[in-house]
Write a structure and sequence with these properties.
Largest sheet: 8 strands, mixed
Low-confidence stretches: none
CATH architecture of the largest domain: 3-Layer(aba) Sandwich
Bound molecules: aspartic acid, magnesium ion
Number of helices: 12
CATH class of the largest domain: Alpha Beta
CATH topology of the largest domain: Carbamate kinase
Shape: globular
Strand order of the largest sheet: 3-6-2-1-9-11-12-10
Amino acid sequence: MALIVHKYGGTSMGSTERIRNVAKRVAKWARAGHQMVVVPSAMSGETNRLLALAKELAPARTDDAYGRELDMLAATGEQASSALLAIALQAEGLASVSYAGWQVPIRTDSAYTKARIESIDDTKVRADLQAGRVVIVTGFQGLDEHGNITTLGRGGSDTSAVAVAAAMKADECLIYTDVDGVYTTDPRIVPEARRLTTVSFEEMLEMASMGSKVLQIRSVEFAGKYKVKLRVLSSFTPWDININEEATSGTLITFEEDEHMEQAIVSGIAFSREEAKISVLGVPDKPGIAYQIVGAVADANIEVDVIIQNISKEGKTDFSFTVNRAEYAKTVSLLKDKVLPGLGATEVVGDTKICKVSIVGIGMRSHVGVASKMFRVLSEEGINIQMISTSEIKTSVVIDEKYMELAVRALHKAFELEQAPA
Ligand code: ASP
Ligand code: MG
């Protein structure tokens, strides 16, 4: 008997019919003798619907009081789907109970709309499991120290599931979703993209941080920190598929380079359209400048990604970085109002029509020339590289958004990702 956490995404929970299917699948696992904790997302479209209502009433608000109410609002989506799943499980003849984040409780910090989980008290859930119940815990939400409901950021149910699995030392966390695993790149852009049977945790982290929507990045961070055995698999297989077949399908996130792992130099091509570039021009080239710029941005809770500082001319330099596109306007006005005056810089300019494309692979650690091959492929396609950033296991470039698909296709082909590594 194992303790298993299942997570079902919004599409999988999208109608009562689908919820019934989820219930049948979970019932199959419970009847096979496993203790089951299930973490559902809201029914598909529900979170968007709720947030759009708030936006109708307050189109431009970003303050904390508003964030609090957004979380209060959005958290209802998961509360509804969780209760419906409990009802469907009961209809299957299984004892089942659902809990909202605050009832568990799942404790978070107070960063509304992007809160981080701090601790999970598993006493109640454990007692229910002992009593033979399937326990449903709402995804996406928690409770801060002042008793406010918080949410974990879009896609946050993945993180809830992995955090619950970590807190309970579950044997495995299975993320059921509308794709059947992690691919070498998005099959909508490259039809030849291939499903990976395994992907290392570090590669998954890079892919998740760069636009792959398969898993929310924080869920991958959690899995890495607590060594949660994590698998991404399809919720669209028939619910009565053989349980062993199901349990080995999809993509397993691995932690060690073992011999079973596919040995590719590049494992995947990630991309993100959600980037924007900001340049501060004419910055005096002296110590403390990067800190003043990036520090002010970070203090506003905005994540800075690729950074470059140009060579200086006559003691002045240009400093560029990327942020999430949704934070672009906020970052520019912050720089203009708060940073430029003290800095003696001349201007802030920006570009939202950019994207980031990355090649990712732990094999890059032991191979030279991988980045240069990437640059060659892009140059052969006539694509201009605006910024570059590298780590041990990835190389990212910022390019014009209009070349994104071309770049992804060309790189996928050049690194022969459509073929399984020998
Ligand atoms: N319902 C939330 C969202 O749409 C959380 C999730 O689905 O993971 O972002
Ligand atoms: Mg998701």
